[in-house]
């Protein structure tokens, strides 16, 4: 009984975030990132005559470098608070979690600090991506 | 026009992620892991190549592209050289971005001063 009343009070007083607004912000921010990326790819294609797959690699590298540096300067957390999933789901989020995991533990030294913590958050992404890609490729290769 | 396609696809993936985050207890870490596996599955059925042709960088910016690159490297390696090719190729196409991410993260962690 008491727990129920308490939950009621919590629900009433916890700030309600506007879900639709957040989804819209993510859509616009993520979409802009995609369109800007396309602009960068077109620029590389026109200027250096690269094949598309190489352009996409350099786009990924650009995003990773920018977001890592912004994380190091401490700006990226504010950007994520504003852009929500628009910055978490693109490659920027991947680089951000890797850099912040390494940064937060760098006072403990090279091995126990940076070395053992750098994959703390992104390890699951690499692990599940690698395992699923391995078995799916094996499956497709054996069947086809 | 490809810029609008890129805007729509990349925005749509981010919006779906935001909807999932709002309505479940999943953390961004869960979400990114799920999306990487989704990218590998889409690549398995050959859909991701179509998306890349349709939206260009719009399909290449989200983290799903990492799953696609892993699958693509593994499958192309298998076609070339069997199991050996699969094991050698699984990281080949994505190694550029991954290596740079690790190197830059290490350098930034070196340069920044420890907190507390």
Topology of this protein?
The complex is a heterodimer of chains A (about 140) and B (about 120).
Chain A: H1 2-13, H2 19-48, H3 52-73, H4 76-83, H5 85-88, H6 91-104, H7 110-117, H8 123-143
Helix pairs in contact in A: 2-3, 3-6, 6-7
Chain B: H1 2-23, H2 28-44, H3 47-55, H4 57-60, H5 64-89, H6 95-111
Helix pairs in contact in B: 2-5
Descriptors for this entry?
heterodimer, A: 144 residues, 8 helices, B: 116 residues, 6 helices, globular
Structure notes:
The complex is a heterodimer of chains A (144) and B (116). Chain A has 8 helices and no strands. Chain A has helices at residues 2-13, 19-48, 52-73, 76-83, 85-88, 91-104, 110-117, 123-143. In chain A, helix 2 packs across helix 3, helix 3 (52-73) runs parallel beside helix 6 (91-104) and helix 6 runs antiparallel to helix 7. The relative contact order of chain A is 0.08. By secondary structure, chain B is mainly alpha-helical. The model of chain B has no long low-confidence stretch (mean pLDDT 91). Chain B has one domain. The chains are: A mainly alpha (144), B mainly alpha (116). Chains A and B meet through helix 2, helix 3, helix 5, helix 6 and helix 8 of A and helix 1, helix 2, helix 4, helix 5 and helix 6 of B.
Largest interface in this structure? A-B, 73 and 73 residues
Mean pLDDT of chain A: 89
**Biggest β-sheet of chain B, characterized?**
none
* Radius of gyration of chain A, taken over Cα atoms and rounded to an integer in Å: 21 Å
SS field, number of helical segments of chain B: 6
Along the chain, the helix and strand elements of chain A come as HHHHHHHH
Percent of sequence in beta strands of chain A: under 5%
Count of domain modules of chain B: 1
How would you summarize what this structure contains?
The complex is a heterodimer of chains A (144) and B (116). Chain A has 144 residues and is mostly helical.
């Amino acid at each position: 009984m008491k727990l129920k009343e308490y939950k009621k009070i919590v629900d009433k007083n916890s700030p309600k975030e506007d879900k639709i607004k957040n989804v819209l912000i993510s859509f616009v921010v993520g979409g802009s990132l995609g369109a800007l990326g396309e602009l960068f790819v077109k620029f590389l294609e026109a200027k250096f005559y690269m094949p598309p797959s190489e352009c996409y690699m350099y786009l990924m590298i650009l995003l990773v470098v920018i977001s890592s540096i912004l994380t190091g300067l401490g700006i990226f957390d504010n950007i994520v608070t504003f852009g929500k999933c628009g910055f978490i789901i693109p490659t920027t989020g991947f680089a951000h979690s890797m850099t912040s995991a390494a940064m937060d533990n760098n006072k403990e030294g090279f091995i126990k600090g940076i070395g053992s913590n750098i994959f703390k958050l992104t390890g699951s992404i690499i692990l599940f991506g690698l395992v699923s890609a391995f078995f799916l490729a094996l499956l497709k290769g054996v069947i086809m | 026009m490809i810029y609008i396609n890129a805007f729509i696809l990349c925005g749509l993936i981010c919006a779906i992620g935001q909807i999932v985050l709002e309505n479940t207890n999943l953390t961004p870490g869960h979400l990114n892991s799920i999306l990487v596996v989704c990218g590998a599955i889409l690549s398995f059925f050959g859909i991701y190549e179509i998306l890349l042709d349709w939206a260009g960088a719009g399909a290449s910016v989200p983290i799903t592209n990492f799953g696609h690159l892993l699958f693509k490297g593994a499958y192309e390696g298998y076609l070339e050289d069997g199991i050996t090719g699969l094991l050698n190729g699984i990281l080949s196409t994505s190694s550029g971005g991954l290596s740079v991410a690790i190197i830059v993260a290490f350098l930034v962690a070196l340069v920044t001063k420890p907190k507390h």
